[in-house]
Amino acid sequence: MPNPRTALASAFLTAALCFPLFAQTEGEIPAEPDWIVENINSYARGSMVFTMSLGVTFPVLFLDNQFKPYHGHAESVFPGNINVGGTGFLSISYFLSPHWFLGGTLQGMFASTIRETMLFMIPLGIQGGYQFVAGPVEFPLYLMFGISPKSHGDAGNLSLFIKAGAAAFLRFHSNWSIGINAAWWFVPEWPKEGADKNRYGNLVETTLAVRYHF
């Protein structure tokens, strides 16, 4: 004759294992947690993305008024040689379609110069681009046009600012993605002294970025 305690334990275990099968009604699909990455990165007209990014800038190439390599001089507001600097930006994008987007960016940058002073820039502009999607990974390509107030020592001016970039983001949550960003800066300087003082700065930006999707 089986032990009553053993029989009672077996019955309890069987009921616990079978309960989920009876609790789920026919045709009901279990809800998936937000962190499941499959099929959460769909975009449509009206989708929006807010991006926060921090990283560094590298001086690459500086050109004079004849578009020849330029190495700077003491009177230049934007010298030919600057050191590696820091940068960060905030941007918001509105999707016009599942792939095309338009938005705005506010950025900041600082770097020491060959004169042992600090260069500060605050680029502000509009940007547009196209985004490729491959599973949970998103690849936005973008182009930004704007202006940038610059301050170098006691001098400063306002210049055109153009940035072209690309990024890769992993959509790990329905509302969040994280990734890396790289961009090329083109910053012309047209002083009032004349065209012979024109300078053209080229820098590279690399940053880590987080995006919020809503």
Protein model, in words:
There is one protein chain. The protein has 214 residues and is mainly β. The protein has one domain (48-213): Porin (Beta Barrel). It is built from one helix and nine strands, in the order H-E-E-E-E-E-E-E-E-E. The protein has one helix spanning 4-23, and strands at 48-63, 85-95, 100-112, 118-121, 124-134, 137-152, 155-170, 176-189, 199-213. Strands 1, 2, 3, 4, 5, 6, 7, 8 and 9 form a nine-stranded antiparallel beta sheet that branches. The longest helix is centred in the first third of the chain and has 20 residues, at 4-23. It is elongated.
SSE layout and pairing:
Blueprint: H1 4-23, E1 48-63, E2 85-95, E3 100-112, E4 118-121, E5 124-134, E6 137-152, E7 155-170, E8 176-189, E9 199-213
Antiparallel strand pairs: 1-2, 1-9, 2-3, 3-4, 3-5, 4-6, 5-6, 6-7, 7-8, 8-9
Mind telling me the C-alpha Rg?
A: 27 Å
Supply the number of structural domains: 1
What is the H-and-E element order? HEEEEEEEEE
CATH architecture descriptor text? Beta Barrel
Number of strands: 9
What's the overall average pLDDT, rounded? Answer: 80
Helix fraction by DSSP (H/I, runs of at least 4):
under 10%
CATH topology: Porin
Structural class: mainly beta
CATH class placement: Mainly Beta
Q: Low-confidence parts lasting 5 or more residues at pLDDT below 50?
A: 19-23
For the largest beta-sheet, the strand count, sense and barrel status come to: 9 strands, antiparallel
Query: Distance between termini?
Result: 64 Å
Estimated share of beta-strand residues: over 45%
Separate helix tally: 1
Shape: elongated
